[in-house]
Design brief:
alpha+beta; 23% strand; globular; three-stranded antiparallel sheet
Length: 74
């Protein structure tokens, strides 16, 4: 691998999402690194900056958690 490319295992991020209690994160963005939620914020821009500052060299997986009124139930 050339340079300093960082590959985050996306499957670990999805595993984290599959078991996550979304209640505390409604209407916010969450950052996942190495299969763990490492931060949350209503501002995606602030979350990315904070996460990159706290975890240099890591690429966070960012997801928007909708509030209950935005989710369509089947």
């Amino acid at each position: 691998m050339a340079g300093s490319e960082i590959v985050t295992p996306i499957d670990r991020s999805f595993d984290c999402l599959a078991t996550l209690n979304f209640g505390p994160y409604q209407d916010q963005f969450i950052a996942i690194i190495d299969g763990k939620v490492v931060g949350h914020n209503a501002s995606e821009k602030d979350l990315v900056k904070d996460t990159r500052d706290q975890y240099p060299g890591k690429m966070p997986f960012i997801v928007k958690v909708p509030n209950r009124s935005e989710v369509n139930y089947i």
